[in-house]
Design brief:
With 114 residues, the protein is mainly alpha-helical. It contains 6 helices and 2 strands. Strand 1, helix 4 and strand 2 form a beta-alpha-beta unit.
Length: 114
């Protein structure tokens, strides 16, 4: 819970028991400790900027304005690498807009899919 509240969400009160349970379930799958250790060592990271110029289809980034991992400035720089990319910013939101602001995220996706 503490990790979610401090690192993934802009507002700790938005971390529900269902969200904690979902993360707990995922973290307790077979071999999950390997993924967690790889993440902490940085072994699961890669430079997305290397791949973006080659993207040939329109794409949309939905970015929480208060994310603690990749800043909004990172998102702005990424979309400059390919004219087919669009950045959509959700204010007062951290790294997981689909969990922290699901209604706003759903509305944005519905609008994009029209």
């Amino acid at each position: 819970r503490q990790f979610l509240e401090q690192r993934l969400f802009a507002r700790p009160e938005r971390v529900s028991e269902d969200i904690v349970d979902g993360y707990w379930w995922s973290a307790n799958q077979p071999n999950a400790e390997r993924a967690a250790l790889s993440f902490l060592r940085g072994a699961l990271s890669f430079d997305l900027a290397e791949f973006i110029p080659n993207l040939r289809t329109p794409a949309h980034f939905i970015w929480g304005a208060q994310t603690g991992f990749n800043t909004l400035e990172t998102g702005r720089k990424l979309v400059l690498l390919n004219s087919q990319l669009e950045l959509h910013v959700i204010e007062d939101c951290g790294l997981v807009p689909q969990l922290e602001k699901p209604e706003q995220t759903r509305a944005l996706l519905a609008n994009l899919l029209e």
